[in-house]
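Name: Formyl-CoA transferase
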Amino acid sequence: MTSPLRGLRVLELSQFIAGPFAGLMLADLGAEVIKIERPDGGDPFRGFGTGAADNDRFAGYSHNFSAFNRNKRSVTIDLGTEPGRELLRDLVRKADVLLENYRPGVLDRMGLDYEALRQDNPGLIYCSISGFSEDGPYRDRPAYDAVGQAFSGILGTLLDPAKPRMRGPTITDQITGMQAAYGVLGALVERGRTGKGSRVEVSMLDASLYHMPDSFTALTQTGLEMASETRAAFSLTFAFRCQDGQLLAIQVSSTEKFWRALLKTIARTDLGDDSRFLDRPARIKNFSALVEELEPIFAAQPRQHWLDLLIAADVPCAPVNGIAEAMSDPEVVHAGLFHDVTHPRRGNLTMMHRAVRLDGEREDDPLPPPDLGEHTDAVLRSFDIAPERLAALRRQGVL
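Structure predicted for Formyl-CoA transferase:
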C-alpha cells in the first residue's frame, strides 16, 4: 500500500513546474515516471536558479529542477526527428499515461496528439496541461505562474494594493500539477472499469479558479468582491511584529472562545466591550481598527513571550518561520518529511518524502532526481528496444 501505483508507466513530456509536479505526485505514489528530455540540455529548469553556474557539482542539476523531479528516470529523445517520434510511439504502446505541458498544437504538429496515440494504445491516459483552454481566445498566449495567478484573481487577493510586488512561492503551477494528477487518477479508475483510455485536460487558469471557490460564491451570493484583507478580516487572522523583530501569526477564526482567550492573554478584555468589536460582524467591519489596537501590544514583548502565553491559553498561533526554521521545527523533524538520498554523481542530497501517508508509511525506495539521460539505455531496454536500434539512434543523435 505504500506504493499503490507500482507497475504504472508514465511518460512525462514536460518542463518547468506544472507538468513535472504532476509527474512527481504520481512518482511519489509508486508510478514509474519516465521523463522524456531533449538531448541538448533537457528541461530548462536544470540550468535555472541560483548557484548552478557557480558550483560544478550542481551544473545542469539546479535546486529548482531537483525539487520537482525526484523519483523519476530521465531518457533523452529528440522528438524533432522522425526516428525520435517513432521511438516515442513505441514507448506509448507499452505505457499507461502520457503527461505533457507543451503549448497547444505543438504535439499535434508532430503527429503525437491524443487521437494519433490512442490508435497505438487505446488504454492510454493522455494528460495535457496548458495555460488556457486549447480552443479559447487565449490559446496561443504563453503562461507562467504569475499569469495564472493574475487572471484567476488569486494575485489580486495577495498583493498589497498600495505597493504591489510579487512575493512568495509559485502557486498556480503547483495547483495545476495537483489537478492534473487528480484527473489522471480519476481516468485510471475509469479505465479499470471500461478498459478504455481518455484525454485529461487542465489549464492553469481553470485550476487556479477552482482553488478558491469561496471567493466566487462570495461575489455571486452576496455581491462581496474579496480584496487583499477580506479573508483575513472574516477569519480574524493577524500577523504582528514583536519587540525582538520576530513575526507572529494568530488566527482566531469564528470561534468565540479563541477571541475571549486572546483578549485575556493580552490583558485587554476591555476590547470585548468596545462597540467596534462586540461581535464577529463588528470585528469584521472594523478589522483595520482592531489591528491598530493590537499591533502596539504585541510590539511591547518578544515573540517567545507571546507564544508561551498564547499556547498556554489554547489560542491558534505560530511563529512566522523562515525556510531554515521550518525545516528544523520539532514537529517537522518528528514527521520525517525530509530525508537524505545519495546520487552516484551528485553526492548526498536532502529531499522530501510525499506528504501523504498510506497505512502510516511514506513511499519506499525513493530515487534522487536524475541526471540528463541517466536512464536512457536501461529504460529503453525495459521497453524491449533492441540494442542495435539503440546504437543506431545514438549515431543519429536522437538519444
